[in-house]
Amino acid sequence: MKTPREILLGQHKGRLPALDARRCAALEKAFGPRRELPTSAASHPLMTAWRELIHPYRQAWAGLAAVWVLLLAASLWPGGTATQTAAAPKPPPHEFMAFCQQERMLAELLEPRPLPISKPAKASPPQPHSERRDEFIHG
Amino acid sequence: MMVVAERKTEELPVAAARAGRPDAWEVLFKRYQLPLYAYVFDLARDEQASLDIVQETFVAAVHHVGGLQSDHKFGSWLFGIAHQRCIQRWRRRVRETEWRDEVMAAPPAFDPAPDELLIEREREAGFMRCLNALPAPQRSALMLHFVEDFSLEEIARITDTGIGTVKSRIHYGKKALREGLKENMT
Given CB atoms, is A37 within the 8 Å cutoff of chain B? Predict the structure, then answer.
């Protein structure tokens, strides 16, 4: 069931092409000959990315940016973590040497060693399986 | 399927149009062209004259947008311009011919679109017959009420009458329409 609005407008929808032409004529009359809009700028990939990715979620992006700024500020602050690590006392030389040695040993242990190449077995006469038997034969 | 967007829920670029941007005017005119034409045609009863009035209304709107008091009243303001244009034209015509009497006496019936189903066509034609049978002031008020869902205050401003008059026109117009449709059904 159509609404009165739909019925009333439906009576005239055949006039849409004429109305489009009149609209263009009115705009030309009011603003002069129509100039093309700078579509190249609007369709630029950066503009598209801005329209589709950033602009709809600008609050989320702003929040993320704020978090990054805070992190950056915290790391650059004089009492921050970076300087704290830098200012930490150096270990004594003997500890450092021990640590290096341990590290070297660990590297040796973990280092994949070349597997011994198995040599083909030498051709030798068959040996007796039991000495008792040998004794028995020779005895 | 209707091509005209529903009103009240939409955001229109009135501020951009005020700033003189042709693309904003294009959007606004595209939105209002069909409802405006329907209203103007109801008053003028002539296709070419109605198209002329719509075009003149658009041009006048661009030139006089400074007179628009608030952005959300753009629709009623535009219809008001069209209404004034219709009256100006009508007065000019009355001076020349007896056109007005002809129009008021025998309003021509609309021909519904040929691709509509018969039952739909009959119902719509019945609705249009009943609407066309109403006195012009009632019909105008009902058109504005139906087509753009304007408030009583807005219709009063467009038609340059009092709110009480508009209220009574809509009330009696709807009543007559209901009775006419009931008669058509039986």
Answer: yes
